[in-house]
Specification:
127 residues
Length: 127
Amino acid sequence: MDEIRPTKTSPALVNTLLCALGDLLDQERESLLAGDLDAISHSLHEKERLIEVLNAKGMERSLELSRLSEKLARNQALLDGALEGIRTVAERISTLRRIRSTLETYDKSGRKMTIEATRATQVEKRA
């Protein structure tokens, strides 16, 4: 997108900014649904820039801003879900690593015991 200068105050410029931000939020939604987190990180700078320019205009609350706010909230919910999924996967991988390196069991009196697994670092060759 061409450079947008915040010194202009024409309604056409504001409309262009609102449309550009709306389109960007729709693209962000599609990227979130597709799991393309790279695309989201690449569009972040442009989204911040558009929001800064709109804020510099000192716009009153309008129907267009309300729609953008709904899109922002929708995308934030999708992003929160994606982050929760990433955390869950990381937790699961950590658990699997721990399980592979230890064995947890209970002794005859019911106390939990952890037995560390040792891995052979060499392969035995037999003739």
